[in-house]
Request: fold
Amino acid sequence: MAEAFNDKTLAADFLSKDRAARYAEVAGEIASVLDGEPNVTARMATVASMLANSFDHYFWTGFYVVDPTKERELVVGPYQGTLGCLRIAFGRGVCGAAAETGQTQLVPDVHAFPGHIACDSRSESEIVVPVFDRVGQLIAVFDVDSDKPAAFDAIDQLGLETILKTTFG
Ligand code: SME
Reply:
C-alpha cells in the first residue's frame, strides 16, 4: 500500500486533480493504511505524510499534541516540513487559538493574525483543525501552513475535519 501510494503521488496528472475529490480519495487511502493500527503516534505520522504528499499547496503539515504533563500546553508531534517550534501555549498563535476555542482556524494572511508564531518566515497562510478523541477530549491540533497567501478555503476545512474526525474520533 505504501509503495503504491508513493508511486501515485509522483504522477504528473495527479497534481491538477480537483481538491474536494482528492480529499475524499485520500481519506479512503488513509483509512485503508491505518486499518487495525491502534497506535496514535503511528496514526498521526501516517496522516501527516499522506496529506503532505497529496497536496501541492501544503508547505508544513503536522500535529501539535496536548502535553498531558503540562497545564494547557501543546508540544510538537509527527510532522512533515521544515523545523517546527517545539511548544505552544493554549491561546498563543493560530495553533493555540484552535486548542483554546476547539474551532478550526482558517487564516488567509498569517501576518494579520495577532500573536502568530513564525516558525518559518516563508509561511503566508494556514489552517489549524482541533483533533478530538472518541470521547470528545481534545488530543491535538493539526496545522497546515502554505507559502502562498490565502491557500486554504472551506474545501480544505471540510476535507481535513472529515479525515481527522474519522481517524481519531
Ligand atoms: N503557525 C503556527 C505555529 C506552528 S508552525 O507554523 C509549524 C501558529 O502560529 O500557531
DSSP finds five helices and six strands in the chain. Residues 12-16 have pLDDT under 50 and may be disordered.
